[in-house]
Amino acid sequence: MSATEAPERVTPRMLVKYREEVVPGLREQFGYKNPMQVPRLTKIVVNMGLGKAVENKARIEHAQREIASITGQKPTVRLSRVAIAGFKIREGYPVGCAVTLRGSRMWEFFDRFVSVAVPRIRDFRGFARKLDGRGNYSVGLSEQSIFPEISLDRIEFVQGMHVTFVTTARNDEEGFALLERLGFPFRK
What we know:
Layout: H1 13-30, E1 41-49, H2 58-71, E2 76-79, E3 94-101, H3 103-117, E4 137-141, E5 161-167, H4 172-181
Antiparallel strand pairs: 1-3, 1-5, 2-3, 4-5
Helix pairs in contact: 1-4
């Protein structure tokens, strides 16, 4: 390949599924006239709270490395806005790290989350069918080891995380239909 040629981009598998299966299905289900009315996934936010970082500063770097390997994107460190004496947290202390995924990284993460990571959860029976009222869905995971990018031998701290799926749906019914058609594992 020469320097002037751009590398060939591969369209994520879930994006192809969204365009070819989900959009026509949602248009038929909800009677959308315009394809731009169809709800879509706009971003995925992966957040890891680090309350124990006050005691051990190494947790911050460890969490950053793990979120970066899981998502393929460097996380931002979240700082506390207020001091909380009961938790020994001062204003400006690092209390978490987060990544916002959009575009092809978002679709790749969604695909890996649904098809690889979730099936690795022990005794998994599906996620609750409760959205936030605006068509968005948040999932709390108890440990990061369900992701294949994390080596079990190298885990220093077992750490939970939240994953939020943000959609353009106007209500929970539309958001639920979108996520379910994309293959999100809800309880039956």
